[in-house]
Design brief:
Blueprint (H helix, E strand, L loop, with lengths): L1 E6 L24 H9 L5 E6 L15 E5 L5 H13 L4 E4 L1 H5 L1 H5 L4 E4 L6 H9 L6 E3 L23 E3 L2 E2 L10 H5 L4 E2 L2 H10 L4 E4 L9 H16 L5 E5 L8 H9 L2 E9 L3 H7 L11 H9 L4 E8 L8 H12 L3 E6 L7 H8 L29 H15 L2 H13 L4 H29 L24
Parallel strand pairs: 1-2, 1-3, 3-4, 4-5, 5-6, 7-10, 10-11, 11-12, 12-13, 13-14
Antiparallel strand pairs: 8-9
The structure holds cobalamin and iron/sulfur cluster.
Length: about 475
């Protein structure tokens, strides 16, 4: 039996724009979900994985599979349905799973034969068995997996053309920020894989550089941090000669021992969500964690960097409190905190989040012709009506934010600081140039976007709570 697992691409996402900006080659990450599914698949299945981010193949020329499994983030959904349509046309049953199929189950069911909601570990062997006998059900619900059931992912099934391999050590997040899908999808409980399993899996990754996909590698409580320290000790002891980047909350900076152990285990960069330069913004997003202890963000960033770890700071444009001038304010805050890269994103109502429910109830989702419009849910397009920013304002704020942070003088200043502190100057330069180039590409994309969709936005959002838009009405898991 032949199983083909597919990660659909979205040409509007920067990592696939390798022709337009060669720097994006250094930002290609391996799709872990499909490697995990392959790890759960019994050996009698012949498995192939197609990652369209490497270039979509001509499916006509591939050997016909007996079963197709498609994954998708929301931004990949409409391409997922196109690919599904192709295989269903050939009579091949198609199963879809992942975050979008879970949050928009009814919509997904219109386009595929079977939908798996939630995490796959508990149900995937049963799905395969029933597919083999031609008895696929329309829906399976995996819920939340026992963390011990997460298999070793099949890192061998994709070519070694990626800048980063991928690995996961924990699932779930208790913080439930309003804009984020993680708590709704992976639950509030922070589930930790056994350290020996993680070390073994690190050994299986072929790439020298690895993205640890955990939403928060160190967790939020003292027992989580103790576990992170044990993990870092075990990784260092295994002498893997790998370098890795991870996501963490700002409390990463609060423990010198933790930082030293992380660096010693190969940590070279960390993504941190600062989200808003103002306490009111953090309140609005429910990101109360960043408000604790009257934190000095600059000092926190410096403490991390002293361990030779780069800091990428993420901020959101389009909060209800954001007014014209927010773009510059964010760039100034990012410069003041001293982050090595800034990732500014539009506030985006992702299905299943508290923000989605709120914006849908307030009729503020401007791009709601689904599934076509999902392709704009990349966080790099303004898909909603913002309270104090018109469409033009929001784009202007994003452009000025990036233009300011990624101006050549600012990049050079950061490079000099990195050289002086002997802190990964090359990686930092690549990161800065790749972001700079993508923001240039995005400026052109915004002109096209405004031309095509400008009329769908009201000049400034007014509080007319009239009805509900959007086709995505599945209940949350
Ligand atoms: C790593 C990651 C990335 C990587 C992706 C690398 C790659 N090529 O896959 C990068 C950095 C490129 C990325 C980009 C983006 N990401 Co991202 N990312 C993640 C992250 C942190 C981990 C995903 C992961 O690998 N998990 C580990 C695997 C094992 O879990 P999983 O994917 O959930 O898979 C399990 C189940 O879902 C299920 N399953 C999945 N697929 C399938 C398919 C079938 C057939 C079946 C049966 C089951 C099944 O089984 C798996 C095992 O249980 C998640 C957060 C999260 N916790 O999920 C955000 C997340 C997925 N990203 C998100 C977003 C918004 C984006 C971006 C749009 C914006 C951005 N700037 O971040 C872009 C879009 C990229 C695109 N369209 O191509 C959102 C998506 C929400 C949504 N509704 O779509 C998430 C949930 C984060 C959030 N804050 O809400 N991301
Ligand atoms: S943004 Fe980060 S801290 Fe907030 S819920 Fe999502 S994963 Fe947790």
């Amino acid at each position: 039996m032949r199983l083909c697992l597919i990660n659909p691409c979205n040409p509007l996402v920067s990592i696939v724009k390798v022709k337009e900006s060669r720097w994006n080659r250094y930002r290609l990450w391996k799709p872990l979900s499909l490697m995990v599914l392959a790890g759960l698949t019994p050996r009698e299945w012949e498995i192939s994985i197609v990652d369209e981010n490497l270039g979509a193949p001509d499916y006509q020329t591939l050997p016909k599979p007996d079963l197709v499994g498609i994954t998708a983030f929301t931004s990949q959904a409409n391409r997922a349905y196109e690919v599904a349509g192709h295989f269903r046309g050939l009579g091949v049953p198609v199963i879809m799973g992942g975050i979008h199929a879970t949050m928009c189950m009814d919509e997904a069911m219109e386009h595929v034969d079977s939908v798996v909601t939630g995490e796959a570990e508990r149900v995937w062997p049963q799905v395969l068995e029933e597919a083999r006998h031609g008895n696929l059900k329309r829906r399976y619900d995996g819920g939340l997996a026992e963390i011990g059931d997460v298999p070793l992912a099949r890192h061998d099934l994709l070519p070694a053309r990626y800048a980063f391999g991928a690995i996961q050590t924990t699932r779930g997040c208790p913080l439930n920020c309003s804009f984020c899908s993680v708590t709704a999808f992976n639950g509030t409980q922070y589930r930790q894989r056994l350290i020996p399993d993680v070390v073994r899996e690190f050994q299986l990754v072929r790439e020298k550089r690895i993205l640890v996909v955990d939403d928060n590698l160190i967790g939020t409580s003292s027992s989580h941090i103790a576990r992170a320290k044990d993990l870092f000790r075990a990784l260092a002891k295994a002498n893997l000669k790998k370098e890795w980047v991870a996501q963490a909350t700002i409390n990463f900076a609060d423990d010198e021992e933790l930082l030293a152990l992380a660096a010693n285990a190969g940590c070279r960069g960390v993504f941190i969500g600062f989200e808003s330069p103002s306490p009111e913004g953090l309140q609005e997003l429910g990101k109360k964690f960043n408000l604790l202890k009257g934190r000095d963000f600059r000092a926190s960033v410096r403490r991390i960097q002293r361990h030779n770890i780069l800091v990428v700071g993420s901020f959101i444009v389009g909060l209800d409190i954001d007014e014209p001038g927010i773009g510059k304010r964010i760039a100034e805050a990012a410069n003041q905190y001293g982050v090595d890269n800034l990732n500014a994103l539009f506030l985006t109502p992702l299905p299943g989040t508290r923000l989605w429910n709120q914006m849908r109830a307030e009729n503020r989702i401007a791009l709601d012709a689904f599934p076509e419009d999902w392709k704009y849910f990349t966080l790099t397009y303004p898909v909603a009506q913002y309270k104090r920013l018109s469409l033009d304002d929001s784009i202007q704020e994003m452009v000025s934010c990036n233009q300011s942070f990624y101006s050549m003088p600012h990049i050079l200043r950061r490079m000099c600081a990195n050289l002086w502190q002997r802190r990964e100057p090359l990686i930092s330069l690549v990161g800065n140039l790749s972001y700079r180039n993508n923001t240039r590409l995005e400026r052109n994309a915004y002109a096209e976007f405004k031309f095509q969709h400008g009329a769908r936005f009201r000049p400034l959002w007014s509080d007319t709570r009239c009805g509900v838009s959007g086709a995505c009405v599945s209940p949350q898991p």
